[in-house]
Amino acid sequence: MTRTVSAPAEAPRSALLMAGPPPRDELAAWSDAPTDDRGLAEVPAFVDPAPPGWTELVDGRGVFVRRHERMVRSDRDPEPSSEPIATPDPDVPAWYVHGLGGSSTNWSRLGATLAPLAVGYSIDLPGSGHSDPPPGQRYSLTADADLLAATIRQVTGDRPVHLVGNSLGGMVVTALTARHPDLVATLTLISPAVPDLRLTTDRGADPRLAMVMLPGIDTVASRRLARITARGRAEGLARTCFGRPDLLSDEDLQAAADDLGWRFGLPWVHTSTLGSLRSLIASYCRLGRWSFPATAARIQVPVLVVWGTRDRLVDVRLSRRTADAFPDARLLVLPECGHVAQMELPAITAAAVAALWRRERLGDAV
């Protein structure tokens, strides 16, 4: 059956949609991370339903969690060989954390692809998706990290887990790893929203976003956001977050709009986005032990950093510097990919994550 692909219509501009830096596909040469697609499941379509979930009561707050079940292995399982095959520990669960304005559904494709290797759990951060906002609407990156750690302990116990985070979620899982090192086996960061203090005109996110720190800006920004329809938001996010938005069909965009539509009825939908953005920017000002470089330097688990060469929100030129900040990290730079590799290129992203998990199980001999 022929699948019709149409380009997204022009979306209304908002304070959160930025042009970003130009494509830098040549930086894919920076990659040094191995990939291994053995045992992975087939990638589901964008329009396939997200896995079911439930609300977990953690420290008196509702945290929504989805479970990505193990699936039947694909025909890409390895042929019999005399060489030992590195298999990730099936008892180590994976936890996936979305970025600003996202939700647990952002992990439906990657979670399903990796499900044969690890049962996965994706959460809605406070104020996102089905999760309750924080008390008093006080958003905090470190508070999110501690709440996530408490959720992990409550759902899958005290054993170490594989953490995977995108954008803001990448910063949350980095903070969690530093604050709760006993709870983490490996760390994967997909376009993490690392500090960018460079004085350049072609950087990632627009520095005017720092205006959210001004008193009273919430009302103005919320009104602008409220004027954008669910379909307009889906199209705008596709243009902003995908390296190749033209590959999304009209059906794909409508499915995204349907997912976003119900969230618009939540009274905190816009304040949660602005509050989380404010907490992220505030984290950039931390000095000393809790600055990002100092935090990364303390992390001893194996790390994978994944970045798209067409990321309009966090400049791919930061990718090597980010990987170098960790004592033990590999880098995968994906050509023609944007800010959400787990959605746009889940197969190659999953293969790199699987290689990291196998390496953690059997060491550098893998």
UniProtKB/TrEMBL annotation:
Annotated region described as Disordered, given as residue ranges: 1-47, 70-90
Ranges of residues in domain AB hydrolase-1: 97-344
Pfam families: Abhydrolase_1
UniProt entry tagged with the keyword Nucleotide-binding: no
Record's keyword terms, sorted: Hydrolase
UniProt-recorded Gene Ontology molecular function terms: hydrolase activity
Signal sequence residues: none
InterPro entries: AB_hydrolase_1, AB_hydrolase_fold
Name of this protein: Alpha/beta hydrolase
Organism: Nakamurella leprariae
